[in-house]
Amino acid sequence: MPRTKRPLAEADPNAARAAPKAKHSKTSDAKESINPSASDDYTSKTNDELVALLRERGLAHTGIKRTLVERLIEADTEEDTMQARGHAALSSKQEYWSKSKNELIDMLRKQGLAHTGPKEALVKRLEAQLEQPKKPVKRLKQDISTKGTINYHTKDNGKLAIMLKDRDLPTYDTREEMIACLERNPANYEQFTAEALIKMLKGRHLINADSGNKDTKIARLKLNDEMDRDPARGCHYGYLMAYSDIANNRRPLPPPKSNNKYSTYGVGRVDKLLKERKLSRAGSLAIKIERLRDYDTAELRKVREAHVRKYTELITEWEAEAGHPIDMEEVNRQEEYYSRRDREILDQVVTKKAAFPTCQYNWKDSHWASRTERELRDICQRRGMDGNGTKATYLKWLDTGSVDYEDLSVGSLQSMYKNRGIRAKYSEKKVDLIMKLREADAETATE
Residue 84 CB: number of other CB atoms within 10 A? Predict the structure, then answer.
């Protein structure tokens, strides 16, 4: 029997070396670099154990076992990378303290960050910027090309915590962990009920949380996700904005009211003011008045300097709480833009609720029909009618001598409650008011 065809390596000894090497993808190289012991450790676990580990880390926990293992290994790799970056950043942090304040200000300006405050605040701001994880270039291009992508790195820590809570995700101690968890788990508001969405809107201090259908509530939440500031600190930002305007001369302090009155003062009154302020009383009346105005100007300058110091203290404190530099002009711009967008969404909703059926009396044949509603109300009040309502209510009472509770306004029913000593909530609905009034009537009849 003839011998089969010889292998290529046997026919040509150099064939094995000449043969092209198999190409390895970047994915396979990355998998080969993974610690085999970690892979074996995860592989030996059950699906339930893997799901529990993923939930603890705030990661997606659906899929087959192979997907779960790869997800855990990838998370371990990211943690190792962050630790290595932290060691490298430690030396950079130490260099900041060796620099002068002017050098630190120049560094902050080049990075587009706030550059006011003492040296300690400047160093902390640079350290916070250094600790922010850098996104891969590929991921960054994807984020820019995708419409509606949220930049979590510019948000306050309080806003990140609220978004984690609304998505039923665990909370974390560090800002980087919160951002990473939110990026891995995009919002899916469609899975929540309308009641849960209303609760989220109220938690973000949005008005008319119960207005509109479910799609309206979801649209408002997604719009609010794009806003950076913590919704619970709205009044604090307004307070900071006022100091910022004064510190940056956008809002001048009003001049002292007494400046214009000095010219009408006599010598005795001017001398008294100079004595109270411990100023010299030498010179003519005009010189004395000018001395008082110079004193007021100096006091106004002190007030402005105090506002600048207060603003520096507040911005440093709140930047530490927010976890990132605060640009008050950007905060103001976002406040105006997103408030206007939110109002536009609400304006598209028919907010007018179906009116409670008041009085269905057919009054067109009544001889009182030519009177206006105001005239009819005055006539009914003079004749002793209890309560108010619509024109049909007054005509029905004039024609028949009686009306039902349903024919009266809510304000009239609440007045009846007060006159009878019945307790009622201000927000109580009309149907509940009528029910309680009839119960009170029944108790009175039995007595």
Answer: 10
